[in-house]
Amino acid sequence: MKLSINMAMTLDGKVVRPDGRWYGLTSSEDKTQMDVYRSQSDAVLIGKNSILNDNPIVKIRAVPNALNPRPVILVRKGTLPPDKHVFEESDHIPLIICTKSNLKEIKTSLENKAEIFALDSDDIDPKKVTGILKRKGYKNVLLEGGPKLNFSFLEADLVDRIYITVVPYIIGKTGLAGIADRNSELPGFDKQNWTLKQHFTKGNEIFLVYEKS
Ligand SMILES: NC(=O)c1ccc[n+]([C@@H]2O[C@H](COP(=O)([O-])OP(=O)(O)OC[C@H]3O[C@@H](n4cnc5c(N)ncnc54)[C@H](OP(=O)(O)O)[C@@H]3O)[C@@H](O)[C@H]2O)c1
């Protein structure tokens, strides 16, 4: 199974606005390219905060006749409101991966809205997540963030490819996340470099494709 991060990033490397959300800084070119990447994927992995803050719709619009990937959402604590777009508007019933500590809460709010898979632990080990997705037969999985989730999968060395769109804005504010974010560095970050496989422009944006060396 191949796991690919897909993120849009400003010229100064930020992936969230000062209000902690991401909207209005991507062009129609980026949205189209995102649909191309989604059309090549069986599943899309999304973190809890991204669902809460951005309420994304996992539905391909720009690629005719494409099959929509299945949303897979990771929730370690608490639950999510059932009226989020991902539960109302996806072609496939979302898969929620949770822990033994929040299973009851998740079942209470999302029983009829998602397939629920509880790990037998209080944390969500990314290796267990990829194991579940492999067993389900998924071959290409897109990790759409946010940065905390990306960090966990990078730390576990599970990311094969990174798609980055550079969007023409500079935010400047200290402390806003980049594509991977935690209050520590990625172990061995200066030993693992990424190989540029592709780069192209569309409109005013640059699209980069890096693969693990
Ligand atoms: N620019 C872009 O392309 C782009 C793309 C996506 C998102 N974003 C932005 O990123 C923001 C959210 O980023 P974020 O980093 O705060 O949140 P996130 O990565 O979307 O979600 C992180 C949360 O997911 C849960 N989680 C479950 N398993 C996890 C694991 N193994 N490792 C880490 N987290 C796990 C945790 O919540 P609990 O412990 O509470 O369950 C954690 O706090 C969004 O608001 C959006 O604006 C930008």
Structure, explained:
The chain has helices at 28-39, 48-54, 85-88, 103-110, 126-135, 147-155; strands at 2-10, 43-47, 70-74, 95-98, 115-118, 140-143, 161-167, 194-202, 205-212. It is globular. The chain has a 9-stranded mixed sheet with strand order 5-4-3-2-6-1-7-9-8. The mean pLDDT is 97. The chain has 213 residues and is α/β, with parallel strands linked by helices. The protein has one domain (2-200): 3-Layer(aba) Sandwich (Dihydrofolate Reductase, subunit A), CATH 3.40.430.10. The protein starts with a strand and ends with a strand. Residues 7-8, 15-16, 20-22, 47-50, 53-54, 74-78, 124, 126, 144-149, 152, 177, 181 line the site of NADP nicotinamide-adenine-dinucleotide phosphate. Residues 2-206 form the Bacterial bifunctional deaminase-reductase C-terminal domain.
Number of domains: 1
Summarize model confidence as the mean pLDDT: 97
Supply Rg: 17 Å
Considering DSSP H and I runs of 4 or more, what fraction of the residues is helical?
A: 10-25%
**Backbone shape:** globular
Major pleated sheet = 9 strands, mixed
Contiguous runs where pLDDT drops below 50 for at least 5 residues: none
How many helical stretches?
Answer: 6
CATH superfamily assignment? Dihydrofolate Reductase, subunit A
Instruction: Tell me the strand percentage band.
Output: 25-35%
Structural class: alpha/beta
Strand order of the largest sheet: 5-4-3-2-6-1-7-9-8
Cα(first) to Cα(last) distance is 17 Å
InterPro entries: DHFR-like_dom_sf, RibDG_C, Riboflavin_Biosynth_HTPR
Keywords: Hydrolase, NADP, Oxidoreductase
Organism: Leptospira biflexa serovar Patoc (strain Patoc 1 / ATCC 23582 / Paris)
Protein name: Putative riboflavin biosynthesis protein RibD:Riboflavin-specific deaminase
